[in-house]
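Priority: medium. Attachment 1 of 2:
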């Protein structure tokens, strides 16, 4: 099996203007699929580096599509806390929860996230609702 050349791989990443990473939103999912399509179509023999990037993209897309991007024992509250930290949000979810007190209770773990709130959170974060139920 031919050896992957790091410099050539970096040039492939630069050429496709996409560095593969864990897909955490619909937007990243669409970008990954577009990068993969550019790699595979039109059909031609891929370099070792292009083939490696294509295989990685396929794997990352499958993980996202199967919902396996979040560790299985993660609670909806932990997912929400992680997303808020990642995006630098403090208490910006009052519109999602309706009132500051409900938002506070959900964020403190005193109240569960209901189905309506899960859908609103999914829209807010551009993710699937099942992460919050």
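Attachment 2 of 2:
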């Amino acid at each position: 099996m031919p050896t992957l050349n790091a410099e050539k791989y970096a040039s492939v990443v630069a050429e496709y203007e996409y560095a593969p990473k864990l897909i955490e939103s619909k937007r990243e999912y669409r970008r990954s699929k577009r990068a993969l399509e550019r790699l595979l179509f039109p059909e031609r023999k891929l370099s070792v580096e292009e083939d490696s990037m294509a295989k990685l993209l396929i794997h990352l897309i499958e993980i996202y599509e199967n919902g396996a991007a979040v560790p299985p024992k993660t609670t909806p509250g932990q997912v929400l806390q992680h997303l808020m930290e990642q995006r630098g949000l403090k208490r910006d979810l009052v519109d999602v929860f309706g009132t500051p007190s409900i938002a506070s209770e959900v964020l403190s773990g005193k109240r569960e996230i209901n189905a309506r709130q899960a859908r609103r959170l999914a829209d807010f974060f551009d993710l699937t609702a099942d992460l919050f139920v």
